[in-house]
């Protein structure tokens, strides 16, 4: 068979692919998509665990130790809020955005930005302010996965909490992080920040 006949025949096949070939291509595409999505989702969920979060010593030796002393770690009800519960939104789209933002944290890990307790404390305020802003901007979405004004029994709260929560519910201008900074981690030194009380 000459080269020109081979090319013509190949071209004819490509112009009108056999139904079996088209079905095979579609089946392979579908199967590949399912495998990719399953792998992607499995990887995403693996990075959404407390064990993953504290797998680097920067977290395990610093904020994790602080968190272990809080009510979010150990309490009378036995319900624990882990790192991703507070720092990663549940909704898929917001979760992907947060994971992309977390790539900056990986860069910090690789470059040793906060690899010692001294460096961590040096950057604590900057990191805290960035996280508080993120939580303020999303109306403390992660907090609200567990805490919701609609389900709070204000009569069971202390007087100050009852007043503050009722006011926040009524006005809608406050979100959890406005009042609960330092709820799970040591507060940075904020004396030089304007408006800090």
For the CA atoms, what is the radius of gyration? 26 Å
According to DSSP, the number of beta strands is 0
Enumerate the spans where pLDDT stays under 50 for 5 or more consecutive residues.
Answer: none
- Distance N to C terminus: 87 Å
Q: Tell me, rounded to a whole number, the average pLDDT.
A: 85
Number of helical stretches of at least 4 residues: 10
| Whole-number tally of structural domains | 2
Biggest sheet features: none
Strand residues, percent: under 5%
Q: Structural class per helix/strand content? A: mainly alpha
Walk me through what this model shows:
By secondary structure, the chain is mainly α. It folds into 2 domains: 1-46; 57-179, no CATH class. It contains 10 helices and no strands. The protein has helices at residues 3-15, 19-46, 50-53, 57-67, 83-87, 92-111, 117-137, 141-144, 159-171, 176-179. The longest helix is centred in the first third of the chain and has 28 residues, at 19-46.
């Amino acid at each position: 068979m000459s080269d020109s006949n081979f090319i013509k025949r190949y071209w004819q096949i490509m112009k009108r692919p056999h139904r079996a070939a088209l079905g095979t291509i579609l089946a392979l595409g579908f199967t590949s998509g399912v495998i990719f999505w399953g792998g992607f989702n499995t990887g995403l969920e693996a990075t959404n665990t407390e064990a993953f979060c504290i797998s680097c010593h920067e977290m395990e030796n610093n904020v994790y130790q602080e968190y272990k002393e809080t009510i979010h770690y150990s309490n009378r009800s036995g319900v624990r809020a882990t790192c991703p519960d507070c720092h990663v939104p549940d909704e898929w789209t917001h979760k992907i955005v947060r994971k992309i933002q977390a790539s900056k944290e990986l860069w910090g890990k690789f470059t040793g930005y906060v690899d010692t307790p001294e460096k961590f404390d040096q950057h604590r305020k900057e990191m805290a302010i960035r996280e508080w802003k993120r939580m303020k901007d999303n109306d403390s979405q992660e907090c609200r996965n567990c805490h919701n004004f609609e389900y709070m029994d204000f009569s069971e709260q202390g007087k100050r909490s009852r007043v503050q929560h009722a006011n926040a519910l009524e006005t809608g201008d406050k979100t959890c992080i406005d009042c609960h900074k330092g709820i799970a981690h040591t507060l940075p030194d904020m004396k030089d920040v304007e408006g800090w009380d």
